[in-house]
Amino acid sequence: MTLSRFYPLGTPGQPWGPAEVQQWRARQVRQRSYADDVLAAIEQLRAQWDVECYGEVVYADAAQVEERFPLMALRSRSWSSALPTVLVTGGVHGYETSGVHGALRFAADHAAAFAGRVNLLVAPCVSPWAYERIQRWNFDALDPNRSFRADSPAPESAALMRLVAPLLGQFAAHIDLHETTDTDESEYRPAVAARDGKAFEPCVIPDGFYLVDDTANPQPAFQQAILRAVEQVTHIAPADAEGSLIGTPLEAPGVIAYDVKGWGLCTGITGARYTSITEVYPDSPRANPEQCIAAQVTAVNAALRFVLAVV
Q: Could you confirm whether the keyword Zinc appears in this record (predicted)?
């Protein structure tokens, strides 16, 4: 690490304390509206779905000005214990725009095709404060997608776990919609290194779509079914010179794997046999916002078709 690449908060080699977190928070600017973009879209879906508020995130800034964000989920109207259950999540990282809008578009335009065949639970925007700031972390500079564990310090993660808890043992699949952006390398990864008092290690952002499987429960056929569908919409990320993606060796073309429970990732919360994390690359010159949303929708549809074929 060179000092010129060090994140402009804190002291190199020293983890942040409350003062640095407050300084980081003061840098975050509200850039879009969760109410307008997400809550309004959910209201339009009440005729098709059972809509549930599964919690509320409340944050207060240094001036004690509160922000309140209702956390919303959509449930199939035709819910039946005889059917497989699938969880679709978006916006665990609020800045990953196509995940949020892909989940909403799937709910609006595609879910009806699966009515009476599968129970669907959709949480389209898990981290609304971060959605508004186009930020990965929550208000407390915590990554919700490293916080899905008992006694979670991230209220967004804890609320989703409470929503899912009564249904444990019923899930056949969970697909979590994400993006890998250029800002992961220019902003987030330098920020997390600075926050934790560690050296920043540069990485190459993959140009294209890829998936993250679970090292403890690999499901290669499931991942390949999703990739085959998505490659009709957008390009699949090639491996880098080391045969890796984002610093992780390939399991197969377009697929890497993480210890999802050990890392506190969202796809570890259901106990489902089939899980996948999508990673869209919105900054590619070969992609556009509409294509990114379409890739997410295609991934969900492919996952559901696979589940219905094998369960």
A: yes
Q: Output phi, psi for 248, to 5 deg.
A: -120, 130
Task: For tokens 């508004």, name the residue.
Answer: 132
pTM of the model: 0.96
Where in the chain are the domains?
A: 19-310
C-beta of residue 128 within 8 angstroms of C-beta of residue 71: yes
Residue 113, C-beta contacts closer than 8 angstroms, at least 6 positions apart: none
How far is the C-alpha of 141 from the C-alpha of 191, rounded, in Å? 9
How does 214-244 read in b/e, with b if 16+ C-beta sit within 10 Å? beebebeebbbbbbebbbebbbbbeebeeee
**Token reading at 43:** 């209201």
Measured CA to CA, the distance from residue 97 to residue 156 in angstroms comes to: 17
Quick: pLDDT tens for 92-103. 999 999 999 999
162 membership: H or E segment, kind and range: helix 155-164
293 vs 105: CA distance, rounded Å: 8
In sequence order, what E strands does the chain have?
A: 49-60, 66-76, 85-90, 119-123, 171-179, 210-214, 244-245, 248-249, 255-258, 274-280
Q: In sequence order, what are the residues at sequence separation of 6 or more whose Cβ sits closer than 8 angstroms to the Cβ of residue 284?
A: 207, 208, 235
115 φ/ψ angles, rounded to the nearest 5 degrees: -60, 135
Structure tokens at 152: 């979670």
CATH superfamily of domain region 19-310: Zn peptidases (3.40.630.10)
Token pair 């600075």: residue: 194
